[in-house]
Amino acid sequence: MLAWWFETEHLIEQADGTQSQFRYYFAQREAVETVIWLYDVRGARDKFDLLRFDASGAVSANMFDEAWPRFVVKMATGAGKTKVLSLLIAWSYFHKLYEAGSTLARNFLLIAPNIIVLDRLRSDFDGLRIFFNDPVLPDNGHAGHNWRDDFQMA
Question: Helicase/UvrB N-terminal domain: from which residue to which, for each copy (predicted)?
Fold first, then answer.
């Protein structure tokens, strides 16, 4: 999926009917690759695994009652957090679907801090628009999988 997102050329149709090249920003790529690296390469599966990467010492395990991991990405306003979220949702979904023994999820709940953010998220996620309008889902046949056909989210 990383090669599809970040190394494959994507042409997106604009409102005026012309096409332009779509590229994710470097910060978006870095955020997505960091989460995937923590999970797939470093094997971070819980808060204890993740805390090994906290150099500040400001966070401790007793701050988190939950047993599930929290992959937190700090990004500035306008840096594309929604796009990163869509990529990580797709990655988690397909990891669970295609990787034997995956502990990731195929079901997701988005929670917004206020109505303004909720409205922005809805404009992207209602009807799964962001997954099909942006090059989130690889074409069927890419890397031997039927990504678009297998993407069955309700």
Answer: 28-127
